[in-house]
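Protocol step 4 of 6: structure prediction from sequence.
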Amino acid sequence: MSLWRSRDARRVFYAIAGGKAIGVGLILAVMWGLPNYFGRVAHAADAVAVHSECVNPLNTVWTLVAAFLVFFMQAGFLFLEAGFSRTRETVNVLLEGIVDTCLCGALFWAFGFAFMFGSGNGVIGLEYFFLRGAPETYGSTGVAIEAFWLFQFAFADTCSTITSGAMVGRTSFEGDLWYSLGVSGFIYPIFGHWAWGPDGWLNNIKPAAFHDFAGSTVVHTIGGFIALAGAMALGPRLGRKFARDGGGMMAGHNMTLAAVGGVILWFGWYGFNPGSTLSAMDMRGIGRVSMNTTLAACSGGLSALLLVYRRGKYWDCGITVNGFLAGLVAITCPCYWVSPTGAFILGGVAGIVCVLAIDLFEYLRVDDPVGAVSVHGVCGIWGTLSLGLFATGQYGAPGPTGPDTSAGVVTGLFYGGGTSQLIAQAVGSACIGGASFITALAMMYALKALGVLRLSAERELAGMDISEHGGPAYPDLVPLDGADPRRVLVSRDPSFVADARR
């Protein structure tokens, strides 16, 4: 009480109390105003539908950040594929990834985006060529159309890059350009429209629609089965001896690059999956997707590691990288609708499926240097089907201002939902995967018939970096003594050929 009689003490008290009152008032004002600014309905009495032409700045920035993360996955692919390939084809892997990105961007702007996301019919989109006539936002997402285009371009680029992994070491660079045009311009956007287009026919399956949250089927199964078609049309690399013939996989030249590339891909997946909400205001959904993505990757890596150790009593780095990538591929479809427990289980199964699939394709004498078909194609199928098993029945769809359950929730077999969702997932996976494989097989064999798909034996033995690109990635390992590398190509010196086989 004596302290309160002090003028200075009262002045300090009033200053602190007044400051706190002002601060609380400002916080309440921000809480009152920001939801309206960012598109959330502030009060039930003022509830109105968010206009599709109203750009939501928060959702747009969130989508752009996610797009940057997905695009950075290209660095991961370059590292991963270069590390799993041989020294003499490293430049080819790097340049193919870079040029494929440039080509994909041009094609997706010209007509790929229109085929995939324009309105048309259940099979193909027929508007927004060169983004002409496109609205301010895509649908009711509130995301600016340019930001949505960038996000989806990064997905298209990922699909095309997956394809190159199984075709490393013997595809001519001209062949790379031709099949990339087919994948980025036609196969990916047209078959992707079936699931993600505004009027895609798989959206209307009854009684349950097909769901693929971030692309286990649309991105990974399509990419993986195009890769299988390419590997089949090409045949194995010269000197490749399969396990059933007493051989095994040719060792990659740099496991450091491969491992770092795999982890970069894992990092980029945090744009791939959480970014597919297209809404920064679905905070719980973003958190759940991020956690599920992490757990599936962890269990996939561990299950693959332990399975191979049980067989050979050694700890395999390469298979562990492919194991956690398999978990990431599998969780990409169901990540919004499953629980953390479900994510951990289905990721662990994916790691085992990946190893068994690698064994299968080795037995079938399919030469896949990086395991692209097993990781992306086969585990993409498993991830898509797993939604029909593990969806908890708690979640609907992400909306521009938060989760939306107005159209119902997604429930899998293990949570009392019956088989309807599982059947829808099987139909979607089979139709998109099958159509992609058949179309890609026809394209690859046509390029082979034209003589542009595979390198000549002479050029392959000389090494793709020298014969296709004019120089090696590691000059100290392939000394040219100042000679023109294109002239070295025609050398018949046995010592040069022997050196090139390394």
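Step 5 (inspection) to follow. The chain is about 60% helix and 0% strand.
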